[in-house]
Write a structure and sequence with these properties.
heterodimer, A: mainly alpha, B: 183 residues, mainly alpha, elongated
Chain lengths: 98, 183
């Protein structure tokens, strides 16, 4: 064993089990805190961004544009289910004016 | 189980078993190096904790270009060097930065270092600038190749060789001054 290895061995002996456990516990605590903060960021950051966008007058990513209709928004002939009668005079059509 | 397999397993599962395995393998050695370089048990304990936290937070960045132990020790040495640099508010961490190199001197043989007693080596490493102590530990305690030392210290290989030579000269001088040979 070289003198450098001997020195390392002597120093390592001073890292007794009490010190070992204390350091390990502190590392675990720090890593748990980081994990918790990471989870908080994962959960809340997107919501905070949505809220911020909304507050500044923008739209949420999933919110439909108020002036743009999608095919399912159509009102009028052909909007019912395929089996339902369509067009004016249908039994339950949205255009029933009775 | 090799370090690399433990790391892969840790990255996939974040299992505390893997964390404990790596901790048990390296905690004592990291503490020892910190104690040699910082010369204070409480500081060495805090440093060991911070170095391990760094290692686990950056584990995904370990690319297996070097051995895991080399990566771990590079974080350890750089942490200690930066700590001393901050405390001294001085960038000089090698003998070369502090005093002018002598004109020409024969290289101190390795055997001369190895003939010291442990308490003498400990004294010498305490007195040397932190960079010199670190470079001697890398070379003679960790058996690192010059290339790895150069990568860790961000220096050229020839600069590292020169710094090892200077550190050995300085170590011999300190030893001769404080532990003169008995006649």
């Amino acid at each position: 064993m070289s003198i450098f290895e001997e020195l390392e061995s002597l120093n390592t002996d001073r890292f007794d089990s009490e010190r070992n456990q204390r350091v390990q516990q502190r590392i675990n605590d720090t890593l748990s805190t980081y994990r918790f903060l990471g989870q908080m960021v994962d959960i809340y950051l997107p919501r905070m961004l949505d809220t911020f966008v909304e507050m500044t007058g923008g739209r949420r990513p999933n919110e439909p544009h108020p002036h743009r209709r999608t095919p399912t928004d159509r009102v009028g002939p052909g909007t019912g289910s395929p089996s339902a009668p369509s067009g004016p005079g249908g039994p339950s059509g949205g255009n029933d004016i009775r | 189980m090799t370090d690399e397999l433990v790391i892969q397993s840790y990255l996939q599962s974040q299992a505390s078993r893997c964390f404990s395995m790596l901790y048990e393998r390296y905690a004592g050695k990291i503490f020892s190096k910190c104690l040699t370089l910082l010369n204070d048990e409480a500081l060495a304990e805090d440093a060991t904790q911070e170095i391990f936290t760094k290692i686990f937070l950056n584990m995904a960045k370990f690319k297996e270009q070097s051995r895991f132990s080399t990566w771990v020790y590079s974080i350890t040495y750089n942490y200690c060097i930066d700590y001393i640099r901050r405390q001294k508010k001085d960038k000089a961490i090698f003998t070369e930065d502090i005093e002018k190199a002598p004109e020409r001197q024969d290289e101190v043989p390795d055997e001369e270092l190895f003939q010291m007693e442990v308490k003498q080596l400990k004294y010498v490493l305490d007195q040397l600038p932190v960079g010199d102590s670190a470079i001697l530990l890398m070379k003679y305690q960790d058996d690192m190749p010059i290339k790895d030392i150069a990568d860790i210290l961000d220096k050229t290989e020839s600069a590292v060789k020169m710094q090892i030579k200077r550190a050995k000269e300085r170590a011999r001088k300190l030893k001769d001054e404080h532990f003169p040979a008995e006649v």
